Amino acid sequence: MALGLVWLALLLAIPAAAAATRILAFGDSLTAGLGLPATQAFPARLQALLAAEGLAVEMVNAGVSGDTSADGLARLDWAMADHPDAVLVEFGANDALRGVDPKLTYANLDQILARVKASGVKAMLLGMLAPSNWGDAYRQEFDAIYRRLADKYQVPLYPFILDGVALDPRLNQPDGLHPNAAGAEIIAERLAPYVARLIRGQGMQG
């Protein structure tokens, strides 16, 4: 009996391992890693980089190729069923390529962020820039979406998901739109400090 109590005391004295922070990467083909093995998509690489920094993170890749912000809003409840601790919201590339009215993109992302925040889950917004072919007025209105929403909901903003990768043929697949493995690695490397701050609760604005 005494020996059993000693073992129980020792077990209770051992600190429980911290549960991994579950992060939902919620987006389109840029998140899904179109054309890449799952292990080379940026969410998987981000998890590995954060682990190397001593952060226990489980990335859930909820990217669906071809999705617009409206598609993302439509499947938000399904995606949130994974009960994440934080959500990286990455939509807009397909909206911009299709010339969707920026007001609609704003409204869809607004609803996504509102519902994520209302659930008590941390959120981070990954921005997109519009191509120039729709004209300056469209580009300016579209590009402003992300800062406006980040300010409204006081969430961290990574201004451009393809920063350092866009338009570089060495870092993109032959379509010129989707990062190759090297490009996805750069995205993960640049995102990692932002996500680390999100996990640690440091700083709200990007």
Describe the structure.
The structure is a single chain. With 206 residues, this protein is an alpha/beta fold. It has one domain: Rossmann fold, CATH 3.40.50.1110. Helices cover 48% and strands 13% of the residues. The chain is built from 10 helices and 5 strands. The protein has helices at 2-13, 29-32, 42-52, 69-74, 76-80, 93-98, 102-118, 136-143, 145-153, 181-200; strands at 21-27, 57-63, 86-90, 122-126, 157-158. Strands 2-1-3-4-5 form a 5-stranded parallel beta sheet, sandwiched between helices. α3 (42-52) crosses α10 (181-200) and α7 runs parallel beside α9 (145-153). The radius of gyration is 19 Å and the shape is globular. The chain starts with a helix and ends in a 6-residue tail after the last helix. The mean pLDDT is 92.
